[in-house]
Structures are given as C-alpha cells and as structure tokens.
Amino acid sequence: MKILPSVDVALVGFGWTGAIMAQELTDAGLGVVALERGGWRDTSTDFAVTFAQDELRYMWRRALFEEPARQTLTFRNNVTQTALPMRNLGSFLPGTGVGGAGVHWNGQNWRFLPSDFVARSHNTERYGPLPDDMTVQDWGVTYDDLESHFDKFEYLCGVSGKAGNIKGQIQDGGNPFEGWRSREFPNPPLDMALAPTLFETAARETGHKPFPCPAANLSRPYTNPLGVQLAPCTFCGFCEKFGCGNFSKSTPQTTILPVLMRKKNFELRTQCEVLRVEHNAVARRATGVVYVDAQGEEYLQPAEMVILCAYALQNPRLMLLSGIGTPYDPRTGEGVVGKNYAYQITSNVNVFYDDKVMNPFVGAGALGVGIDEYNGDNFNHSGLGFIGGGYLACWQTHGRPIEYHPTPEDAPKWGAKWKQAVAKNYNSTATISTHGAVMSHRNNYLDLDPTYRDVYGRPLLRMTFDFTDNEYKMSEYLTARATEIAKAMKGREIKVNGRKGPYNIVPYQTTHNTGGAIMGSDPKSSAVNRYLQSWDLHNLFVMGACAFPQNPGYNPTGTVAALAYHSAEAIRTQYIKNPGFLVQA
Amino acid sequence: MSSSKLNRRQILSAGVLVGSSVAFDTAPAASITGKVPWHAGDANKPPIAEPGPRQYLTDAEAAFIDAATARFIPNDELGPGAVEAGVTTFIDLQLAGPYGKGASWYMEGPWPKGEPSQGYQSRLSPADMYRTTIKAIDAYAAKEFGGQNFAALTGEQQDKILEGLDKGDITLEGADGKAFMTMFWQNTLEGFFADPIYGGNRDMAGWKLIGFLGARYDYRPYINKHNVKIDLPPVSLKGNPSWTPA
User: Fold this and answer.
1) Of A149, A381, A441, A512, catalytic
2) Does A582 map to a domain?
3) What CATH code is carried by the domain that includes residue A39?
4) In a domain, A581, yes or no
C-alpha cells in the first residue's frame, strides 16, 4: 500500500454533498481531495442532446447508476428471513460517478416542515406517547437553524417556484403550509403542462390550496451566486434518471464544478473506491482513508479531516466496515450505526380522459402542481392511528413509453386489447401521486451481511425493512384523498394504485433511502451530532440522508444540502479554529 | 499516520495546505486539479445496431420469440406488432451483449430462491435464462399438445401457456417460468418502444402507435399549448431521414 502525503480534507464520494463541502472548505483555504469511485462526467461529453434521450440505455440499462456487479446490498423484510442480494437495481437507483445521484435526480427540491425536525417531541405533545417500537427522534437541529442553508442551496440551484410563506406572511399562490422563507424563490414557477392544471382546478374546487412544486429545473436563464450560468428548461422529458443536456437541471456539474474544478487547492481523483476509514480510537480522530484505484493499487490517504459524502446507504456501511461507532442491535435497541433505516411509501391514482390531449412527453423532472394539506402534521391526526403524511402532486415528468403506458382497470396485461388500451390512453391520462413519509421503527435497520461480499471482498450492506401499520394507514389515507381529487378531475374513469403487501425491492418506487447514521443530541441514540460530526471521531463528518432520524413526506435533496451547508458553516467558523467536538456529549 | 510535524490546530487555523497532493508524483493517474477535464470531440455516444445475422438466438429460440411476442403485441388494424417492429432482433442483440451476460448484475452465490419481495435470484444470466426456459417451454408444449413445440401451437394454446407461466400456474421442468415471463415481457416492451438504434421499434412503429415523439429535446413552443396534439413526426437518435436524404 502506498502512503500519500497528508491533506487537510479527504472527501469520500463526489455528488451533491461532496461538491458543496469541497466548495465551502476550499473557500476557507483548506486543501481538499475528493475520492470518487466512478468516472468524470460532464454535460457536453456525457449527456449531449444528440444522445441523452435514450430510455433503454439510461433507465433500463442503468448507465448512470451504481452497478450491483461491483457492490450492492442484501435485503429482507424482517429478521426471520435470510437476506438475499439485490442482483439488479429496482426499487431505488443510487448514483455513481462525478455528480452522483445529483446528476439523475428530478430536481424536486423541497424543505421539510418545521415540525418534521422535532417529530418526536411535537407528535408526543399533540397526540400522546408514540408506539413503543416507533423509534422516531428529534433531529437536534431545527428548521430555523437551517433556513439560511435551504435558501443558499435554492439560490445555488436557481430553483423555480412560488413562496408560500415569506417571514411568516402567507403568500398567494404558494404553499401556505411551508416553513417561513427569508425571500422569494430565485426564479418564477415553470410554465405548466395541461395535466397539472387539471389537478390544480380540482384541488381548489375540493377546498385545497394547490401550488407549483419547487423545481431545480430552470424557468429562465440564471446566473448563480458562484457565477455559473444555467439555461431554461426545454421540457424534453428525459430528466429524472437521465443527465440533462441543456444545463437546465441543477446538478453539481451545472452549479458548482465549473468553479470548484479550477481551484488549485482542490483535487478530484476518479475511479477511486474508498475501502475504509482509518482511525485512532485513543485520539478519537480519523487518520485517513484507504482506497483502491482502477488499477487495483491500494493507497493510504492521510487526512486532517475525513468527510463521508457517499450515498446514504454507503456512508453507514463504511462506518460499519471501519469499526466506527457502535453497530445497532434491534434486539436490545442499543447501538447507533445502522439504526432507523427508513424509506418512503408511494401510491398513485390515474385519471383517464376521452377529450384531453396531455402530451405527456412534454415534461420536466419537477414539473407539477402539489398540495400539502396532508403532509407532516399539517392536519389533525387524532383518531387516525398514524402520524406523518405526504404531499399529493400531479407531475408531468415524462412520457418515455417503456416505463409509461398507463392502462385502465379492465385492460389485460398484454394482447390486442392491451395494445388498444395503450394506444387510447397514452396521450390522455393524468396521474396524482402521493409521496408518503416512513417513520423509523425498531426492526428496520442496516448492518453487514454475513454471507455476500462485494468485488473487494467486503461484506455487503444488509437492509432489513418493511412498512409498518403506521405507513399502511397513512398511505391509505393519502390515497383516499388523492382519489377524491381524481374524481373531481372529471375524467372518464380512474384507477387507484394503492400500496399493498410487504415492501418489495423490485418495482421502482423512490431513491429516498434514509437513516443508518442518524443525527441527534445524544450519542446513545444517534451517530452524529447536529453538525453531522461523528460522536466518536471529532474530525469525521457524515453527510447525506443517512442522517435523517426518520423520513418525512418530501424529496430529501433540499434538506441534505441544507444540512451540508450547516455542517460546512460549523467547520469554517468553529472547527478549523478549534478542532474538537462541537457538541459536548 | 499523519505526515505532518506541525500542530494540527495551527495548520487548520492558518488554512495552509498540508502536503497538498497537487502535482505530486505519488498521485494516481486519475487525478484532476486546476481544470475541467473536457476534451473537444469526446462524446459518449451509443452504438447503433446494423442489420446482420442473428447474434445469439438459435432458429428454434427465434421462432419461439416471434410466436410469443406476436401474442403479446399482435399485428392488427392499429399497426405493426412486436414481430413487425423487430422485437426478436432487439432481444437477440441484447442477449448477445452485456445485458445478456448480466454484466452489471450481482451474480455471486449462494442462490436460495427467496421471497418475491427479494427479486430476481436465479444464477442464470438473461441469455442463459432465455436458453434454458425456451427449451423447457417447448418441452412442456410437446408434452401437453401432442409433440408440437410452442411456435407450432394455435394462438389460443399459446396464450394459455403464456398466462399459466406468468401466473405461476404452470411449472416447468428445470426452469423458472414466472421469472422468465417477467424478463421476457419487459424485454418485449423494450424492443417495441426503445429507440430504433437498438434494432427494435422498426420504423418507430411503437412510437407511432401511441404518439410519442422520440428523441426530441425542445418542447418550449408546446408547453403552453394545452389540449393540442403536437403535429410533428417522431425522431430517432439515428436522426430524421428527411435531414439526411439518401
């Protein structure tokens, strides 16, 4: 193993959080090296509009995603089953390569609700004690702590939207349930396709307050605070699961990298997979990382600080592989690493029309109208038997036909009648989606698999997860509300696609995996503190949705980025001057 | 393990680069610093399938796929079916390539059957899955229907077998009919609706059936035209024939 000269900061993974931390910490004068397992990717070379619109290659042959052949995870619904490897991708699509999943996200950029960050204390106060096995926790950080960081990311991205609450003043046309904002969105909402406007009308008629969903798809030309220019979205319908060819979706490539890559105190090493974090338990410090390059050569990269910026599932795995923190044990409820893995629960309702032309392929990843009446604690849960919720939205993201060819209830799975149904309904269907929270539960967790290994011989991560009563009841409630609005949309017929049976790792649902290295205010119940700093090693910070103690009913990226900026600020203003634990246990 | 002899606190507060790896000879080849590593002319383009002999499927296998996909998506008054759209060619090329080998899949054992919620757990790659299962389906057809293979049966008999396999009502000797049907139906959809560069969706027949406009990338003129059918022909990644007349 070669030992390299020490650096100030080693970043593990180079997606959204890697790019944010690199930009912030190089600005503070530190030397930063990012280690990315995948390759370099940029818009003109890798997502050019002469070939980016290729459904087979990118969605179904998974060109931009993590390759299970190199590493995957094993999965089981509960501890009585034997976990088996996820042999090909399905339910979620982790990224790899420069930009990470930030390249292929939709751009649905939300802020969690103020009450989401204090989920245990808030719900307990309002509804009484939570069920014993519901391991929901407060985050140790509040919405007010994060507001300026949400704002910073939205302006970096040039998010298109309409504010619903500016400094406590409710704004017409925005989401009246959202937490306060210091100012309006940097860009106005996207122009809207037909289907979301039909939802908007029906939602208003049924007493809701619809609003254009916040989109990191640009509604006009924009120059961000770093001086990087983005172009207006062209609604090509190849957005989520694809790289954007138009510089119109906010990604690390289109917002940060043109500035960061030119800095002399930043270095990116691609095709470098970090195998483990080295640490000194006595000094309570990480000492560096061991990685392997494309040639199979191993290196030790000593570093004054190590920041884990890999995907939410890989960060806790690296901690487990490195022996950092106490692994979570569901039998005792003790230990923290791997604790509170959560996901989201989705459902949808199709509305089929005879007299409408939807042009579903005129879409963008975050083009849609939503309502937030049934999210978080925006409604009274008394007597409902669950906490949490989710937004309802009518998106028009794409009409890519291998994935999208909706058929009504009575259509067969294939054959002439199927063909007729597909031809009839492809261009005249709208869909309302529900995007439900998943509360953490004692028996849903991550650990290392005893049997299966990755290409480097390391144990795979083992996921033990199923939806619980809380999720089924909540999803049923959300689906019923979506059904009411679907009926008010006055189509020919509707079809309700509810969530039934155990969680299944095969059909795509959402790439919103959370937990495993959760944040909190007590080292006994959390792996990192409010600044995402390890309770065990003061110079180790762990980014990403693995920090979420449970998973609220919104897409995670806005909060992932806000937490990264919050952490970066603490490093810049406190840690660099006085390295040590920023919160005393 | 730090090579630094300085006090860490000083280093960090001074913002000094500690052993910055910029341009050190120990840095690995894939190091990028001080620039955006973009090269004129580089483009990560997809390969385009050219007409030619079959790459993987045997005659019997191709006959099975022709027969079964004609039941899935028949040729009728609405337009070409799967066979006419080249789905068999598409599947042949896919099975001959990285997909057929399961190149990006995790294929390590052991291989217990598992629960439906755990997904595909066969040790067979897709190419092997087709080979093994088609043989087993033809054997089943011969046993049930007087010695004839699947392709020689009537449409009704074929439907009965396909539905029985898909529902798990028919079990095959030495093959997982249900897992195969999931893969086969997905590949049929791909062959019918993927860009024609992959050998299927011939003449963009799948796209014309539904009105999908293909690999276009700018719909700004249409976003605000609600309830209006967009009067444009579909475009493949090959380009539009009218742009490059023969």
Assistant:
1) A512
2) no
3) 3.50.50.60
4) no
Q: Chain B: residue nearest A54 by CA?
A: B195
Mutate to test the interface with B, among A6, A77, A322, A506 (most CBs of B within 10 A): A6
Total number of domains constituting chain B: 1
Q: Strand, coil or helix: what is A229?
A: strand
Its ipTM equals 0.97
Q: Could you list the residue range(s) of the whole structural domain that residue A466 is in? A: 2-575
Q: List CB contacts (< 8 A) between B12 and chain A.
A: 8, 30, 304, 575-577, 579
Q: Is a pLDDT exceeding 60 seen at residue B210? A: yes
- Residue B164 inside a domain? The answer is yes
Task: Return the residue in B117, B161, B190 with the most chain A beta carbons within 10 A, the one to mutate for interface testing.
Answer: B117
Expressed as residue numbers, the domain containing B186 is 59-104+121-210
Lowest-pLDDT choice from A157-171, A306-320, A437-451, B2-16: B2-16
Kindly give the pairing relationship between strand A298-308 and strand A540-542. Answer: parallel
In a domain, B143, yes or no: yes
Q: Is A512 a catalytic residue?
A: yes
- pLDDT value at residue B70: 98
What span, in angstroms and rounded, lies between the C-alpha atoms of A194 and A212? 13
Please check whether residue A518 is in contact with residue A527, taking contact to mean a CB–CB distance below 8 angstroms.
Answer: yes
Task: Please name the residues in contact with A96: beta carbons below 8 A apart, sequence gap of 6 or more.
Answer: A37, A38, A64, A65, A66, A67
Q: Is residue B15 part of a domain?
A: no
Size of interface A-B (CB pairs under 8 A): 315
> SS3 for A291-341, per residue?
EECCCCCEEEEEEEEEEECCCCCHHHHHHHHHCCCCECECCCCECCECCCC
Q: Which residue of A has its CA nearest to B198?
A: A56
Is B135 part of a structural domain of the chain?
yes
Residue A583 located in a structural domain: no
Confidence class of residue A582 from pLDDT cuts 50, 70 and 90? very high
Strand A285-292 to A298-308 pairing: antiparallel
Which residues 538-557 of A have a C-beta within 8 angstroms of B?
Answer: none
Neighbour order of strands in the sheet with A390-395: A211-212, A368-371, A390-395, A429-436, A345-352, A493-497
**pLDDT in the model for residue B30:** 79
Q: How many domains, in total, are found in chain A? A: 1
The pLDDT tens digits for B218-238 are 999 999 999 999 999 999 998
Spatial CA neighbour of A275 closest among A232, A211, A323, A228: A323
- Find the closest chain B residue to A220 by CA distance: B220
CA distance A368 to chain B (A): 12
